[in-house]
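Milestone 3.1: sequence recovery, worked example.
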């Protein structure tokens, strides 16, 4: 018998949903501290003023509902859980005098968002299904 996971948050019209793979142009895995892994989808990676991303922590075989981040504004990102905004992260705006290039800025804010996401998710109890 196949099990299907159905999120009740998808049925509400006022929820925030993750974007589809086709919405973003690039995807990469990011490793922080040797053990924590993140999936990062990006758009406008060559333009730090318009840079957008979606970040989620990778928890294989875990059925718990974790927080994830969506950055679609220049200086802030939303922390989302169960389709609702659970918090906001303020980000530094891009200043070309502070960074050698735009890639350095993007690496910096992605790492910062991953650290913040780890902090949010540290309180979540893993739920592994052994059936």
């Amino acid at each position: 018998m196949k099990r299907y996971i159905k999120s009740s948050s998808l049925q509400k019209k006022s929820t925030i949903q993750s974007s589809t793979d086709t919405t973003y142009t690039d995807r990469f895995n990011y490793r922080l501290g040797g053990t924590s892994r993140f999936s990062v989808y990006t758009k406008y990676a060559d333009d730090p003023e318009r840079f957008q991303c979606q970040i989620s922590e990778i928890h294989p075989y875990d059925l718990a509902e974790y927080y994830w981040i969506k950055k679609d504004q220049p200086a802030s990102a939303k922390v989302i859980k169960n389709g609702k905004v659970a918090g906001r992260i303020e980000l530094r705006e891009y200043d070309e005098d502070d960074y050698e290039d735009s890639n350095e800025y993007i690496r910096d804010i992605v790492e910062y968002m991953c650290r913040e996401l780890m902090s949010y998710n540290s309180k979540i109890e893993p739920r592994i299904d052994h059936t």
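Residues 75 and 127 are 34 Å apart (CA to CA). The chain has one domain: 22-121.
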